[in-house]
Amino acid sequence: MADLQVASWTLAIPVKRTAIAKSRLAAAYPQHRPELARAFAVDTTAAALASPLVRAVLVVTDDPVVAADVTAVGARVVPDLPSAGLNEALLHGAEVAAAEFPDDGVVALSADLPALRPGELTAVLAACSAPRSFVIDLPGTGTTLLAAAPGTALDPRFGVGSALAHQASGAVAVELTGIDSVRRDVDTAADLAHAVQLGVGPATADMMSLVLGAATGTEGLAC
């Protein structure tokens, strides 16, 4: 593992304002959806920063509470100046990353990976040998990670059917087993239940404890 001790990637993580984020969780978690979305982003950011291949994490957001939370775990915040959508936010983050760390590759990482494991992320980054590489989500249609080598345009195409869109753009899918935590993005209550089974980070675990406590009229339940 000695060859993995030199950081070579800068990550851009886009986070919507949590007042509107994760709308598909609203039915199951109507009172806690914004807090869950914020917890996902914090756990994703903290896990990413724990990878020895990650030099820095830039969180692209205009949410002041998210900004404070991710700064507390060691990320830098980049305002979402375009405020024009996910791909535009990622392009802005990639531009900042390339300007500040020109020798690094740039990675776009989903903000809703609460079970993310630093070791699994490290394995993925080590496997990103193509000019552009991506990770397909567990459902098989979306993208959780897009990596561009130094000097290569990120060209993000996130959205419905992004796995096919990234493949069509020339990006190469990372074919690894044992990386479910990198592929388990959370959009629905079923996704969150699976993430909890994998083992979520402390911010999400704390929120799930509060959610379960509210549901049963008690506090401090472990998820």
What does this structure look like?
With 223 residues, the chain is an alpha/beta fold. It has a single domain (2-212), classed as Alpha-Beta Complex (Spore Coat Polysaccharide Biosynthesis Protein SpsA, Chain A). Helix content is 39%, strand content 16%. The chain is built from eight helices and seven strands, in the order βαβαβαβαββαβααα. The protein has helices spanning 33-49, 64-72, 86-100, 118-127, 162-168, 180-183, 189-198, 202-216; strands spanning 9-15, 54-61, 76-78, 105-109, 132-136, 143-148, 172-173. Strands 3-2-1-4-6-5-7 form a seven-stranded mixed sheet, sandwiched between helices. β1, α1 and β2 (54-61) form a beta-alpha-beta unit. α1 (33-49) runs parallel beside α2 (64-72). The protein starts with 8 loop residues before the first strand and ends in a 7-residue tail after the last helix.
Summary, kept brief:
The chain is α/β, with parallel strands linked by helices and 223 residues long.
Whole-Å distance between the termini? 33 Å
Tell me, what is the CATH class? Alpha Beta
What is the count of helical runs?
8
Would you count the extended β strands for me?
A: 7
* CATH arch. level architecture: Alpha-Beta Complex
- Mean pLDDT across residues: 89
- Helical fraction equals 25-40%
Q: What is the CATH superfamily label?
A: Spore Coat Polysaccharide Biosynthesis Protein SpsA, Chain A
- The rounded Rg comes to 17 Å
Measured by DSSP, the beta-strand proportion falls in: 15-25%
Sketch the major β-sheet: 7 strands, mixed
Structural class: alpha/beta
Which stretches are low in confidence, meaning pLDDT under 50 for 5 or more residues running? 1-5, 218-223
CATH level-3 fold name: Spore Coat Polysaccharide Biosynthesis Protein SpsA, Chain A
Reading the helices and strands in chain order gives EHEHEHEHEEHEHHH
> In one word, what is the shape?
globular
What order do the strands of the largest sheet run in, or round the barrel if closed?
A: 3-2-1-4-6-5-7
InterPro entries: CofC, Nucleotide-diphossugar_trans
Keywords: GTP-binding, Nucleotide-binding, Nucleotidyltransferase, Transferase
Enzyme class: transferase
Function: Guanylyltransferase that catalyzes the activation of phosphoenolpyruvate (PEP) as enolpyruvoyl-2-diphospho-5'-guanosine, via the condensation of PEP with GTP. It is involved in the biosynthesis of coenzyme F420, a hydride carrier cofactor.
